Amino acid sequence: MTVALSDPAGVIAMRRDRVTLRKTVVSCALLAVTLLLAVILLSLVGSEQLPVRSSLCALLSLGTSPCGLSQDQFDILFQIRLPRIVLAAAVGGSLATAGASYQSLLRNPLAEPYLLGISNGAAVGTMVALVFFGASEWSRPVLAFAGSLLATLAVYRLARGRAGATPERLILAGVIVTTFLSSVIVFVTTLMDATRIRSFTFWLLGDLSGTSKTLLPVTIAIAVIGAVALTLNARSLNLLMLGERDAFDLGVEVGRVRIVVFVVASLLVGSSVAASGSVGYVGLVVPHLARLSLGSDNRISIPAAALGGALFVIVADTVARTVIAPRELPVGAITALIGAPLFIYLLKRA
Amino acid sequence: MDVGGTFLLAPLLKTKSLPALVLICLALACACHRGRSSFSDLTITREVIDDAGRRVLLPGRVDRVISLAPNLTEIVFAVGAGDRLVGNTTYCDYPPEAKAVTKVGDSLQPSLERIIALRPQLVLISTASQLEVFTQQLHDQNIAAFVTDPHDLDGVFRTIEQVGQILGQTQQASALVKKLRERTNVVQQAVQNAKPVRVFYQTSGEPLYTIGKDAFVTDLIRRAGGVSVTADVPGAWPKYSNESALAARPQAIILPTGGSMGAANSTVAEALRNSPAAVAGRVYKINDDHLARPGPRLVDGLEEMARALHPEAFKQ
Fold first, then answer.
1. Is A170 within a domain?
2. Smallest CA–CA separation between B184 and chain A, in Å?
3. DSSP state of A164
4. pLDDT tier at A169, thresholds 50, 70, 90
5. What is the CA B284 to chain-centroid distance, rounded?
6. Is there a domain that residue A44 lies in?
7. What is the value of pTM for the model shown?
8. For labelling, which of A35, B167, B188, B253 has a CA lying 20 to 30 Å from the CA of B280?
9. Mean pLDDT, consecutive 10-residue segments, chain B of 316 residues?
10. What total number of domains does chain A contain?
């Protein structure tokens, strides 16, 4: 009897897991298809008007056939526009994934790379790389990673009082780290020569136009590996949302999960900031949207946030590169313009 | 000031020495009246209008000048008034004598305190350094500030003449402008029959920045026998779309680099690597100090640009 009693529980749990898995696969497949469509459709939009039919044909042939596009048009599509859109997707995915996992680990709906000062840490790392190792492109993501990891640890240590890390304390720690690092940025900017300040300020607000051919594959790889790694820890993160002690009692290796999230999320933030500056609000708005529409199970919301973040930044960057064409806006201005009101709406609704 | 004065006067009030008191009051009043830029206040004889449309009151002879931009420093020296420059910026490195002048900060963050301490009768400002708020602060301190804002080569010549007039060096300034105009005419005549070259002017590669219709370089390129492919873009120094730059199919790319810029901006933006200009090897590096500073050396930049765009026109 006892065996018969415990069996149904196991079966129910397994069935529930299967339902979750199906829901994850279906929602992620839908988002992935939307993302792919967005990549193709938004590749047709830009400051230069390309022939739609030929561009579509060239895109669907994966660049093997020019389909009647001139060499310049072909280059615009495949050397400039598409790499930029792919970078936008990688950056958006990275930031949203990082945001979603911080929010679960720290049990704080406001935990976001930008608000916690982690993006600023990565920005300081990138600046140091630019000023001292300007020649080496690789120094940028490496030092950005170091910067975001240090900022993460600083915020975490500051937030942990005797009573543990309360949500208010965490946000306060984030504000302190953000403002401190902002002054470091201002200080270093002041030391730069005049001609570089403007382009640097633009980069700081989030700019995807400087897509580096060498770093693009790395940024994509980190985005994908990071999203997969954090999704694999989603079950532990679910339990951590109950509180660290409860999670520990339920068999979660809290310390290990914390280190994984800190390192992987710092890697995600570091690589996206090194590539595109600080694009704000992505890590806040997208995970919230994902949880509101698909529930707070991290096994669904983390991969969904990754895909949704990619979609969000692709759309925002299309606005940034077309709205005052042929001039451009920093994409961070657009994500903030869309993100802040959207977030207020979500807060009011929730 | 008032508190301190009353405190010092206290012993005198007790001694009832009225004449002494009156004298001290007078002295104090004079001191207050003299203010910070003392002699200029007392000897205002001229009023000039600057490029920002502001009325600037000046004494008959200006002996103490501060320049807040490298091009203005070059102009002051070029019209023969370098010895009256009591302050300039850390960017001011030409002519070599300019380096020895007291520094008041850089063009973007000058120190108001140090400027006041140098008791200038006039501060020369370039709007390129975006100092509107700072100009107001100088005005509040009773320090005359003259704002320059040339948008083309003629505007630069006008600035040179204005600075010359203000400093009482009218003849030198006119002679200089005459010489510069002659050199400009030589260049323009040499290239006038050549087919204009379509030029992309890259001020920064990543992110991509260029010149718009308000930049004096746009006018310079036209005079050098070229046409800027971004001549119609609003603004002076816009952030530009990579794909539009490539689609414009520039025949030549100019990289202002070197000089005080060092090695910065010495390579073509990745997006333009396959542009007709880069493929044909028509990428020209020109000393940034000759192109970014609207002063006398702008004509050097013009000559260098024309020789790069139309080498055939200068074969003797």
1. yes
2. 27
3. E
4. confident
5. 25
6. no
7. 0.84
8. B188
9. 44 52 56 46 78 90 94 97 95 94 88 92 84 85 92 95 96 97 96 95 91 94 97 92 94 92 87 93 96 95 96 86
10. 1
**Which domain range does residue A187 map to?**
91-201+214-278
pLDDT in tens, A324-342: 989 999 999 999 998 889 8
In DSSP terms, which residues pair with B66 in a beta bridge? B87, B123
Query: Does the distance separating the beta carbons of A76 and B240 come in below 8 Å?
Result: no
Residue type, B30: C
Q: Kindly list the residues from chain A whose CB atom is less than 8 angstroms away from the CB atom of residue B240.
A: 326-328
State which amino acid sits at residue B106. D
**Which residue in B106, B243, B244 is closest to A194 by CB distance?**
B106
Q: Is residue A234 part of a domain?
A: yes
Measured between beta carbons, the chain B residues lying within 8 angstroms of A73 are 247
- The CATH number of residue A140's host domain is 1.10.3470.10
Residue B211 sits at the chain A interface (C-beta within 8 Å): no
Q: Do B203 and A195 touch (CB under 8 A)?
A: yes
Whether residues B207 and A202 touch (CB distance < 8 A) is answered with: yes
Give all domains of chain B, ordered by start, each with its CATH number: 39-173 (3.40.50.1980), 194-314 (3.40.50.1980)
Please check whether residue B236 touches A, CB under 8 A: no
Residue A222 pLDDT: 97
CB pairs under 8 A between A and B: 91
Give the model confidence (pLDDT) of A128-146 as tens digits. Answer: 888 888 768 889 999 999 9
Answer yes or no: do B271 and A79 touch at CB < 8 A.
Answer: yes
Distance from CA of B241 to the nearest CA of A (A): 5
Distance from CA of A185 to the nearest CA of B (A): 16
